[in-house]
UniProtKB/TrEMBL annotation:
Keywords: Disulfide bond, Glycoprotein, Repeat, Sushi. Residues 181-190 have a biased composition (Polar residues). Gene3D superfamilies: Complement Module, domain 1. InterPro entries: Compl-Cell_Adhes-Reg, Sushi/SCR/CCP_sf, Sushi_SCR_CCP_dom. Residues 170-190 are annotated as: Disordered. The keyword Methyltransferase does not apply. This is Sushi domain-containing protein. Residues 1-52, 53-117, 118-183 form the Sushi domain. It holds the Pfam family Sushi. It comes from Ciona intestinalis (Transparent sea squirt). It comes from the Eukaryota.
Amino acid sequence: MFACSLSTAYGSNCAFRCSRGYHLVGSNSIQCGDANNDGVGEWSADFPVCNEVICIPSLSAPSNGSINCTDFSQLDSQCHFSCDNGFFLRGNDIITCNDDDNNGEGEWSSNPATCKEITCQVQNSPVNGSISCTRGVLYGSACFFECNPGYSLVGYDTVLCGEPNSDGAGQWSIEEEPPTCISNECSPES
């Protein structure tokens, strides 16, 4: 947008500014004069242009996740990050394209988020027993406890690696003491 004091007449001053989302490249004001004293009017500088403010780098979906942006890399665009099932979001789930210093170079409000695989802590085998897990310590894994012959299981026999806590660590479906294997005893004859 621009406004000139005397249209294009000698002595006119023109002021320029850009709409939000654009950055002025060139002088914000120019004057019509006769610098060569030849009777031909000339502007004191080239007309400026308005370049779109964009954030660089362009964002892409994190591995094992997705991204949804309102206006790609344009000023004020918001990008929403999410992760696939079994993965935990590290970083901000929403970032915004800003031009806080008004230099025409957009910057993201923070680094792009990443997706980390959800894992649970290792489950130990009970003494005189064993454990087998469908997917190790990964999200969705089921672990089954068994005892050796001559022993009986006390406690739960199965746990599942499920949703993460605020730190991204998966949580086992049962948080109580792990199961144990006790020796089978024959009762004395009476």
